[in-house]
Specification:
By secondary structure, the chain is mainly alpha-helical. The protein has a 3-stranded mixed β-sheet with strand order 4-3-5. A two-stranded parallel ribbon has the order 1-2. It has a single domain (25-304), classed as P1 Nuclease (Orthogonal Bundle), CATH 1.10.575.10. The chain is 50% helix and 4% strand. A hairpin with a 7-residue loop joins strand 3 and strand 4 (201-202). Helix 2 crosses helix 7 and helix 5 (76-93) crosses helix 7 (149-165).
């Protein structure tokens, strides 16, 4: 192996390694769905009604979601909001053998962070050419097309989900270091402990479940309401047009600066996690909260954004 190839090998290997596709956990995705729903309800009720009708044409509306849609204890508004919440988590629910709708590489993008070389942002797309940015655009085009409503409903689920995943810093970042020469797989190999008495876990899973672990309707909806109050839409930065590429760069910068603490955060391996700094969770939780709130508001903005009356997603009305 030549010296040049030896230098490139870790980077080539990284591009072939899968990164965890959990993103935020299911309850957190449900909260993002609820925030998106209420934002649309306040600003674009007609467009929301169209989206709800579209989701009711989803293939799982008669199977996986049927009990929820028949629940007599829920109001019609609760059912519709719950439908958005289930749609946002659906791409994680279908991680099943031979499920044709499951696309593991769609959930992330690998921007490389190598502290020893300074900041580097390299998009190492997989051989299939499918990453979260490409998947988002693919599904956006389906929603704008003349496809069947069932296909558009599936695309809408992916948009709601990927618009959430891209806000999770470790879904855009892979750390290269002497400890992880082939990459830490978005924090999945980066072993930590919250305290000495806690079991070892990985950094990625810590971020995934930082806000909520209970996936009930009430718990996820309550988290959404809390985040809407703490991080209201009016306080979010405004762009003329939604831009998922810019969102992914934001997440990468947060991962570099905060998740990995500019390369100073220490990792263990195997079952020997390194205890996190005592202020880590208290510092990172507000960041996670803000990213989740921003995901919901940004998705709502995209779903109602109008260009020549067709919208960012091509939705009239």
């Amino acid at each position: 192996m030549t010296n040049a190839l030896k230098r490139l090998w870790p980077w080539l290997l990284l591009s072939m390694l899968p990164l965890s596709v959990c993103g935020w956990n299911k309850p957190t995705h449900m909260a993002i769905g609820a925030i998106t729903y209420r934002d649309l309800q306040a600003k674009s009720p007609r467009k929301l009604a169209r989206l709800v009708a579209l989701l009711r044409q989803h293939p799982d509306a008669r199977t996986r979601w049927a009990a929820t849609l028949r629940d007599s204890t829920l109001s019609e508004d609760d059912k519709n909001r719950y439908l958005f919440m289930l749609a946002a988590r659906w791409p994680d629910d279908i991680k099943e053998p031979n499920n044709p709708y499951d696309h593991p590489t769609w959930h992330y993008i690998n921007y490389i962070y190598n502290p020893t070389l300074g900041m580097a942002r390299t998009d190492t797309t997989l051989a299939t050419g499918e990453n979260i940015l490409q998947a988002f655009e693919h599904n956006r085009q389906i929603l704008k097309s003349d496809a069947a409503d069932s296909a558009k409903a599936i695309a809408l689920c992916w948009l709601l989900h990927l618009g959430g995943d891209v806000q999770q810093p470790l879904h855009t970042t892979a750390l290269i270091s002497p400890q992880f020469p082939a990459g830490d797989q978005g924090g999945n190999l980066f072993k930590i402990k919250v305290s000495m008495s806690n079991p070892t876990r990985n950094l990625h899973s810590l971020w995934d479940g930082m806000l909520l672990s209970t996936d009930s309707f009430d718990a996820a909806d309550q988290l959404a309401r809390q985040l809407e109050q703490t991080y209201p839409r009016r306080n979010a930065p405004r762009r003329r047009k939604p831009d998922i590429s810019a969102w992914s760069v934001e997440s990468f910068e947060l991962a570099r600066r905060l998740s990995y603490r500019e390369g100073s955060l220490q990792a263990g391996t195997g079952d020997n996690g390194v205890v996190l700094p005592s202020d880590y969770l208290a510092t990172m939780r507000p960041v996670a909260e803000q990213r989740v709130a921003r995901a919901g508001h940004r998705l709502a903005n995209g779903l109602r954004f109008d260009v020549k009356k067709k919208g960012w997603f091509g939705l009239r009305g």
